[in-house]
């Protein structure tokens, strides 16, 4: 007589699926390891290299972003589509590359700008910059207390809205000694609103018949991240791009005094202030383009490469904005971010339309 087989620990702890009723066929379990998703994740070999179809789709989207048919909004949309469906198979690599690629792209844009025009744009934007930064920080403090959010999260979202989005949050976070989850909430909030702004601002600008100068200034003040500012302005026109980039980078320099003020306000000792050195690279490129005639032929090449780099940057950002990231933020941080964004967007728009 055969002896009964003792279940292994795994078998004993894993419940079997319930049998299907008589006359019916059990429905197959649907998850990411079955059907279509299983084919996307199944390793394959070609030319001695392992790959998955998921990685092939990502690479095809990436290559498209290098072509003239891609634009910043399209690249962001492709990244978002990837993130919401099959996911980003190179999350670590794209996260590491995004910041550096954006910095090199901004420096490259400097080779297409004139220093005299940039100074004039900076003069026009300085008052808007000062008022909007401190107004946003103060409003964020009031609304954040009303919503019952933690001080660190409130300050990070407010700084991201007031200065330059993810770059400001990345710089202010270590000064606050913010926790990883606090950083994630702030970054998630800002990145979602950035995506909305990139698509929404150009149609609004055209509907209101804004000039290139007006639209560039509005983008620099009302859109969080430098990548989305440059993307939206580039879609509107070259002059708007020049104004927006100059004013936004001048605004980004406020990371330094705001970081020092944060350390004093939150009584943090022994912290290092992160200086956005790439801005000085942008200024150097602009000076070379303005005052060194021999470098003029280099300008169009560098600007074209910079625009491609920006397009790829936005594809990477979109690919990292999964539904999980969006849901993990929670409703209150979005409420804070949206209120701040609406106030600064509508307020600056009204002033620009009536004064510039």
What does this structure look like?
InterPro entries: UPF0324_pro (IPR018383). A hairpin with a 2-residue loop joins strand 1 (44-46) and strand 2. This protein is mostly helical and 356 residues long. The protein has a domain at 120-355. It has 16 helices and two strands. Residues 1-33 have low confidence and may be disordered.
C-alpha geometry: globular
Give the strand order, joined by hyphens, for the main sheet: 1-2
The percentage helix is over 70%
Tally of helical segments: 16
Helix and strand composition category: mainly alpha
The biggest beta sheet reads: 2 strands, antiparallel
Terminal CA distance reads: 96 Å
Radius of gyration: 24 Å
Q: What's the mean pLDDT score?
A: 84
User: How many strand units?
Assistant: 2
Segments where pLDDT lies below 50 for 5+ residues? 1-33
Determine the strand fraction and express it as a percent band. Answer: under 5%
User: What is the string of SSEs from the N terminus onward?
Assistant: HHEEHHHHHHHHHHHHHH
Region (Disordered): 1-25
Subcellular location: Cell membrane
Family: Belongs to the UPF0324 family.
Pfam families: Cons_hypoth698
């Amino acid at each position: 007589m055969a002896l009964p087989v003792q279940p292994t620990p795994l078998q004993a702890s894993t419940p079997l699926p319930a049998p299907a009723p008589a006359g019916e066929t059990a429905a197959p379990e649907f998850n990411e390891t079955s059907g279509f998703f299983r084919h996307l994740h199944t390793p394959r070999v070609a030319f001695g290299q392992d790959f998955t179809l998921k990685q092939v789709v990502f690479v095809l989207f990436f290559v498209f972003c290098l072509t003239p048919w891609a634009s910043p909004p399209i690249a962001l949309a492709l990244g978002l589509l990837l993130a919401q469906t099959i996911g980003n198979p190179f999350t670590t690599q794209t996260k590491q590359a995004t910041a550096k690629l954006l910095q090199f792209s901004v420096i490259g844009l400097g080779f297409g700008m004139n220093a005299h025009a940039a100074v004039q744009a900076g003069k026009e934007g300085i008052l808007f910059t000062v008022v909007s930064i401190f107004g946003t920080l103060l409003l964020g403090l009031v609304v954040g207390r009303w919503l019952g959010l933690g001080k660190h999260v409130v300050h990070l979202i407010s700084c991201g809205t007031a200065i330059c989005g993810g770059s400001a949050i990345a710089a202010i976070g270590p000064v606050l000694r913010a926790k990883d989850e606090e950083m994630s909430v702030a970054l998630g909030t800002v990145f979602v609103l950035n995506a909305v702004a990139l698509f929404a601002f150009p149609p609004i600008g055209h509907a209101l018949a804004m000039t290139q100068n007006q639209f560039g200034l509005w983008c620099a003040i009302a859109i969080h991240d430098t990548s989305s500012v440059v993307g939206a302005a580039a879609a509107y026109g070259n002059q708007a791009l020049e104004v927006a980039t100059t004013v936004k980078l001048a605004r980004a320099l406020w990371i330094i005094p705001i970081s020092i003020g944060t350390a004093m306000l939150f009584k943090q000792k022994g912290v290092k202030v992160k200086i956005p050195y790439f801005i000085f690279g942008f200024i150097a490129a602009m000076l070379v383009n303005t005052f060194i005639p021999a470098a003029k032929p280099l300008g169009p090449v560098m600007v074209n490469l910079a625009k491609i780099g920006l397009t790829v940057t936005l594809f990477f950002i979109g690919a990292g904005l999964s539904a999980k990231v969006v849901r993990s933020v929670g409703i209150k941080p979005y409420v804070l971010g949206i209120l701040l964004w609406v106030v600064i967007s509508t307020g600056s728009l009204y002033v620009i339309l009536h004064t510039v």
